[in-house]
Amino acid sequence: xxxxxxxxxxxxxxxxxxxxxxxxxxxxxxxxxxxxxxxxxxxxxxxxxxxxxxxxxxxxxxxxxxxxxxxxxxxxxxxxxxxxxxxxxxxxxxxxxxxxxxxxxxxxxxxxxxxxxxxxxxxxxxxxxxxxxxxxxxxxxxxxxxxxxxxxxxxxxxxxxxxxxxxxxxxxxxxxxxxxxxxxxxxxxxxxxxxxxxxxxxxxxxxxxxxxxxxxxxxxxxxxxxxxxxxxxxxxxxxxxxxxxxxxxxxxxxxxxxxxxxxxxxxxxxxxxxxxxxxxxxxxxxxxxxxxxxxxxxxxxxxxxxxxxxxxxxxxxxxxxxxxxx
Length: 326
Ligand SMILES: O=P(O)(O)OC[C@H]1O[C@H](OP(=O)(O)O)[C@H](O)[C@@H]1O
Prior knowledge:
This protein is α/β, with parallel strands linked by helices. The protein has 2 domains: about 10-115, translation initiation factor eif-2b, domain 1 (Four Helix Bundle (Hemerythrin (Met), subunit A), Up-down Bundle), CATH 1.20.120; about 120-250 and about 285-315, 3-Layer(aba) Sandwich (Rossmann fold). The protein contains 11 helices and 10 strands. The chain is globular, with a radius of gyration of 21 Å.
């Protein structure tokens, strides 16, 4: 099939829908799913010409890219896979894309496990770790610590509005970690019992700022005030190349229904008494300035946030153009 319209495989659209609706979520998991979707697009392509194949692949990447704006692991994954797409025939393009996606996914897994080993070195036997949201990179550190015989306990913040803390609590309990679940507002009280705050990241900016689930910055400020170190577990795929040239990271604003149910909205509107409608805002992420972060743990070692730009230059050079814009 070869019309002027790009052909995006339904599996790609399904993955994009799942990412947008957060049925697939977490920065690393999103990157993995996006790479897998591009491989499926390539495998199932019946493009008649190399140009049509590339057009369809770029359209697929764009559809995946437009799902959520904050986690840079998504565009970084798409860039990686598309850069590996090469060949003069459709079949060569298909196999190079699939191979590139497979390599990416394998590297992602390896990076997380390496990062876990490095992060685990910061934890001591008997430590109590406070978590926010659900981060597979953060959990990799705890898992590696447990594997090397370091026992830890966890205080898990619920993480409103979507309560991803419940996923963290479940995973930690499966690993045998004693867990105390708290509401977000109780965090400062429990910092007195905490040895480390451990969070993940959706993006890391060139100045070392950490973009992570809403509530991270308040937690980090309170942790600093209490003298509790803040450790951010983030594979290098979370490094945001555009921030090297001064761009800021877009913060996703999600639907009001995550905060206020339809019934609650009706009840409030029913009591409005001529007042304008209640405004609800629901930012999914916030920015923690580098001065509140003690270490960013990556698969390439741990870094003080201020020095992360050196690693970014080494990994990305100057090229951050989007291959799907071509
Ligand atoms: O890559 P990993 O470490 O799994 O997750 C990183 C971050 O992704 C999540 O975002 P969301 O729940 O998708 O909005 C959280 O903010 C979490 O800290």
